[in-house]
Design brief:
mainly alpha
């Protein structure tokens, strides 16, 4: 159960980061770069969310 929560939290964080990356990339015409820059933040969000659920 705890692993599923962690996977859900990381998935949610990565999903947010991909959406933000697409917005950044669309703004600057560099979609890949926007996603690459925002992915570490998504992993960090997932880490914080999984830490809060404990």
């Amino acid at each position: 159960m705890k692993k599923e929560l962690n996977l859900f939290a990381y998935g949610f964080g990565i999903l947010i980061s991909v959406i933000v990356g697409l917005l950044i990339g669309y703004t600057f015409d560099r979609i890949g770069l926007g996603i690459a820059l925002s992915l570490p933040f998504g992993v960090g969000i997932g880490f914080l969310l999984s830490d809060l659920k404990k």
